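Exercise 4. Each item below gives a protein and its sequence. For each, produce the structure-token representation.

Item: S9 family peptidase (Luteimonas terrae).
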Amino acid sequence: MMSVSPAAAAATPVPPDAEQRPHTVEAPHGAKREDVYYWLRDDKREDSAMLAYLNAENAYADAMLAPLKSIEDRLYDEIVGRIQQDDSSVPYRDRGFWYYSRFETGKDYPVHARRADGAGVDALSIQAANARGDFGGEEVLLDVNQLAAGKDYYAVGDWDITRDNRILAYADDTNGRRQYTVRFKNLETGEVYPDVITGVSANLVWADDNRTLFYVENDPETLLTVRVKKHALGTPVADDVLVYEEKDDSFYMGIDRTRDDKYIVIGVGSTVSSETRYAPADNPETFTVLAPRARDVEYDADHLGDRWVIRTNADKATNFKLVTAPSNATSRKQWTDLVPHRDDVYVEGYELFDGFTAIEERAEALTRVRVLKRDGSDEFVQADEPAYAMGLSVNSEPDTAWLRYGYTSLTTPSTTFEVNTQTGERRQLKQQAVIGYDPSNYVTERVWTTSRDGKRIPVSLVYRKGFEKNGTAALLQYGYGSYGASMDPGFSVTNVSLLDRGMVYAIAHIRGGEEMGRAWYDDGKLLHKVNTFNDFIDVTDDLVRQGYAAPDRVAAYGGSAGGLLMGAISNMAPEKYRAILSQVPFVDVVTTMLDPSIPLTTNEYDEWGNPEDKTYYDYIVQYSPYDNLEAKAYPAMFVGTGLWDSQVQYWEPAKYVAKLRDLNTGEYPVVFRTNMEAGHGGKSGRFRRYRESAEMYAFMLDQLGLKDAAAR
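Answer:
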């Protein structure tokens, strides 16, 4: 099924002088590991030998994939052909303006804009005007196409506008490393102020005085969020005042305003603990702790009217609950239950309104929205498919009976609805336009498989009508399984091209996520991490057994921590997968977790374990993909990374691929693609990522014998 052999394409890249540049990675407990490819790490991204190796791998990838260029182009054209290029988001109203983003045909980046509120102006009328190309009365806030001109990478991470609607602050990133620069623009005059703040996260909040901006400063080495500062517009950045500094490097930090705009809040959180500080937005001089941090107690809080509403796992509320507290609260002793804990329902989020509270819940691996009214009655927003994703949308104003929510499934494009919580009336505000796509041609299923230790694992499936469960089809199985992140079944414009070629697409909702509640997460981290990998493999076995796929036509896909999953299953069960797609993979767990200078390491001791503790060291080293590569046949692999990745450093996949090339005895190709201008999320721009997906999927289709399959 391979269209070209490695030898015919190009010489396999070999890192120069690898054996002459060994590095001893010393661990506590007397352990030592010789890492001959450690030299590929260069924090400055300047080492000539390292860059030469990455460029050689890219050249090899170019040569290997050249015979597949026609199918890549077809896939890209199909994907882009489904996209309505002059699309716009659903407008939302805030302080007298309707805000939205829109794209122009052929352009990569959005235009962020607003229109003044008035008679006959609402979300639907603005969308209709945008669709006609009628931009009269529009005020452009940021044309990201202009800002990105001439740059290899560009992203606007966050923006905020003063309470008087006059001054815009925005944070941009020019290399994908998520180290942002804050800039200021007068929306009345167009003037760009000389104030420039560097080295910050994408998190900005104005105070009520319309000149003081709160921001979060990053550590320049670890990139951790460490300090909240405030900048007075027009004053030297060097004089910015330190508001709060977090000394515990296992905590992340962020800032926000409460629902009623009464308070500015500073939130800090680790994997197992959190803490909120609040100060009046009209005089944010002194921040008060809402409830002191405590290990194994997490909470997030919002304020409306005369009370705080807090989501927390305190008092053994494993699946979280909602409590209330008075506006001047300083202790958990002041908390009163609003929505009690339930063992079978996970409380995922909430939004406060004057007349009700909207709650995002999860039960039996499905999301739902519950409306809790002031009188204590409640009701659920209904769904019509067996596998779907539902969640709160942008609800910018609390003084309304209308609730916006989003809905999607593996067959239904992303849709925004609003429902009147008093009358039950429902309106569709927008559905993602997918040109030439007919959802009635596709079928989605929710099936359950059983893991080797008896756990029921939910799986979401989609395929084109006419598919026969006879054990001959090709399958792409996706998984993540870390950080409690749930991989809900949502529509993908790229996957349609796979379904139209007869493939089945499956999402394995494995342990490590929270699809089945908080216990599902706890059973897939720390000393239970191997459950994540076993679950994924067991799902594969069961889908093959049930006839959803041929045993020799299964591909697997994961990114970041999902790339760890890919590396683990490749070591544990390489014979079960014909192709592995691994993007920005976290594959060198031991070395990374032993180095607190690397971004995210200290924040994640409670996710993976601190290898300074021998119990965790011994456990991690058993599954770390880089450490467990051995001389045997591996599946075909497509591995991707970004040189400027701040989440998973480029050298992890680089080292992994180099060592894999040394040990792999198999006949299938390994392709390693490094985006030299990109970070963790890949290249910027809405079309570039589709080109990357088309290249990766072309590789997979070739390996699965579908290179020449025509799309139906």
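Check: Residues 88-140 form one domain.
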